[in-house]
Structures are given as C-alpha cells and as structure tokens.
Amino acid sequence: MRDPFNVVFIGAGNVMFGSPEGAWNQALRWEQKLGARLNMLAIVDPDLPRVQRTLDGKRGDASLRNSYANTEAFSAVADLVAAYKGKEDTIRAIVVGTPPAFRGGLAKGTDIELQIIKAFPKAQLFIEKPVAAGSVKDAYTVGETIESDGNRIVGVAYMLRYLKAVGHIRKVIAERGLTVMATHARYATAYNAVAKPFWWDKSLSGGPVVEQATHFCDLSRFFGGSVVPGSVQARATEWNEPAGQLAKMLVDESKIPEEQRIPRVTSANWKYESGGVGSLLHVVAARSRFFADGHLFKLEDPYGKPLLRIRTPASDEEETLTFPGDDPFYSEVDAFVDAVESGSSQGILSSFKDACGTYELTWDIRTASERK
Ligand SMILES: NC(=O)c1ccc[n+]([C@@H]2O[C@H](COP(=O)([O-])OP(=O)(O)OC[C@H]3O[C@@H](n4cnc5c(N)ncnc54)[C@H](O)[C@@H]3O)[C@@H](O)[C@H]2O)c1
C-alpha cells in the first residue's frame, strides 16, 4: 500500500459508522479522503459485537477490504495502550467519538484524551463534540493539556463551521468590514428518531443544549465572538409540564431518574464581548440568522441542502445562494488530514480550547434555564 495513513477509532457508534439518524459517518469521510491509503489499525468500543458487525460489513466490500483487513478490536483504551507498547508511534491519528461522558474530563473513566496523549504522544486527535459532559473547568484543563506542546494537531467536530455557506458569510463580513450585531439560532430535533438512551439522560449527555444545540451555539460564537461571562439568560419547558409532553419517544423515559430527564424547549439569550446579542431557541425548525450592520444572513437547512439568504443595504431583494454537493462532514476530515500531513493547524476551524468556549456557553444556558 502506498504511504498508508494509520488511524484508530475510539467508539463504533452512529457518528463513526453512520445510522439512519443523519448524514454523520466519520468512517465514510475518512474512506473518501484517503482511499486505499486508509489503514484502520484498531477500533475501541466496549460493544465488541458491534465492532465485529462493522468490520464484517467493511471487509465484505471489495473497495474497503484492505483498509480494514487487519483492524484489531479492543474493548477499552487501556487494552489499546497495552497492545501498542513499543509501537506507539505507528498510530498517526486517533478519532474519538464516544458519548461525551467518557471524555473531556480529569477523573478516571472520563479521561480518554489524557490516556491517549500519555500513551501516544505523537498521535494527532480528532474529537467529537461536545468536548465533555462534566465540569467546564476540567474540560478547559484537558484542552490546555492536550494542546500544551504546541505540536499536536487537534480538531473538534463542529462541522457546520466548514459549510461553504458559513465560509461565504465570513468572507462577506470580512470584505465589507462588518461587525455582527446579533445572532439568532433556532433548531428542532426530530426526537422521534433518537433512540439512544444516553441522549435522553442529562447525567450522560449534558442535555439537549449541551449535546445538540451546541452546534448552533458554536456557530453563533463563530460569528458573534466571545460571550460575556454571566450574561446568559434562559427559560425551559420541562418534561413534566403540559407543554412538555411528547407522544413519540422511542426510549422508556420512566427508566431515567426524574431529575435527569431533558427539557423539551430551551430559549436563551446572551451578550457578546463586542456588545452584540445572541439568542437560541432549541425546538422548532433548523434556521440560523446572523445580523450585521444593514446586512442579514439567513442560513437554512445546514444539515441538508444549505440555503443562504443575504440581504444588504443595497437592495430589499434577498440574494439566495445554494451550495450543491457541499459536505461539511467531509470538509472537516479533509482539513484535519491535510493538517496532519502538512503539520500546520491552519485549516482547522475548531480547536479544543475554542470548543470549550461553546461547551461553557451551553452549560451557562442549561444552568440559567434550570434556575427557578
Ligand atoms: N458532529 C455531529 O453531527 C454528530 C452527530 C452524531 C453524534 N455526534 C456525537 O458523537 C458522540 C457519539 O454519539 P453516537 O451517536 O455515535 O452515539 P452511539 O450511542 O451511537 O455510539 C457510541 C458508542 O461509543 C461506545 N462507547 C461507550 N463508552 C466507550 C468508551 N469508553 N470507549 C470506547 N467506546 C465507548 C458505545 O459502546 C457505542 O458503541 C456524541 O458526543 C455525539 O454528540 C456528533
């Protein structure tokens, strides 16, 4: 094989290998980016039968067989570490896609990144969002630790930053010297397709803002900049209120402790350091808006066929832009692999430390929404 690119996946769930839930599927993008160069050294997941089913599928496909021919399955990072004693540097990149409760922390059982950087000092890291499910302070410490040597390439999977439509908005803002005055993000989840029990349990996922609306909080920060500490105000509709009743849940919520059940609606607003204002409504429809002096940028359907509407002071007519074939999941892997090969993080749009800023914002929203 020409110049193989050795990768390890930690987690073998939906985000890594795809599901009917959505377009995410890390493996597919790594296969597209690297083709025959992809060499999947190992997959780590306590659900070994799931790993085996995945490997059987990959090996059954002639175009992928070689990439997965020698993939080893491990049930824990400790087993990977033990197996790679003496050949640590053969791993070029590690993609971490477990539920957040197992990573982004300092305590045992939540410290996947710290285990990895200790055992594999030369491996580059691509990490799923959100960066953690525990303390914000600990997440920042993890970020500082993994980025401390300055040489490690680290990317976080805030893929909406890689949308061409988002790049276009940033270009127009920069070219016209605009300042973002307000961001307004709305998102609704098709909850009747979410069958993962951890998603419905705040103690495991952090809740729907921390776990999911995080993408829109992150995009808001990408445009609005740093959020003023303590400025977040929020309200929620809780699971036990009349407006919070759901008829089509796929999980049995009675098994989740009442205090860990997720809110159904969260509405929040905050101030940016620039003086601008941000707002989020997690429930109704996937729409995001960014306002800048005389300009209005509306980004619709970011997960599907992104549509960007721009209004400028020059006209009442909206300019509508589409971006056929744009795949931010591919673009984030493309940028990460290019960074690993070039040694420069320049193309990576989401660093761990910056992603901690989004994590902090989502926790501030959750905490404010739970205030009685
Ligand atoms: N960027 C996106 O658009 C996007 C989309 C979906 C999910 N995600 C994120 O990906 C993460 C995983 O979500 P998912 O949908 O794949 O969940 P999932 O439940 O489908 O899969 C998680 C997998 O992780 C495994 N796992 C649990 N603990 C582990 C450990 N300590 N080490 C290794 N594997 C472990 C589980 O056995 C399971 O197979 C979450 O943080 C989620 O927010 C991101």
UniProtKB/TrEMBL annotation:
GO MF terms, alphabetically ordered:
nucleotide binding
- Residue ranges of domain Oxidoreductase putative C-terminal in the record: 161-288
What positions does the domain Gfo/Idh/MocA-like oxidoreductase N-terminal occupy?
5-156
| Top-level division of the source organism's lineage | Eukaryota
Q: Name one Pfam family in it.
A: GFO_IDH_MocA
Coiled-coil region list: none
- Which InterPro entries does this entry report, sorted A to Z? Gfo/Idh/MocA-like_OxRdtase_N, Gfo/Idh/MocA_Oxidoreductase, OxRdtase_put_C
Kindly give the PANTHER family that the UniProt entry links to this protein: D-GLUCOSIDE 3-DEHYDROGENASE, UDP-N-ACETYL-2-AMINO-2-DEOXY-D-GLUCURONATE OXIDASE
UniProt protein name: NAD(P)-binding protein
Q: What is the lineage of its organism?
A: Eukaryota, Fungi, Dikarya, Basidiomycota, Agaricomycotina
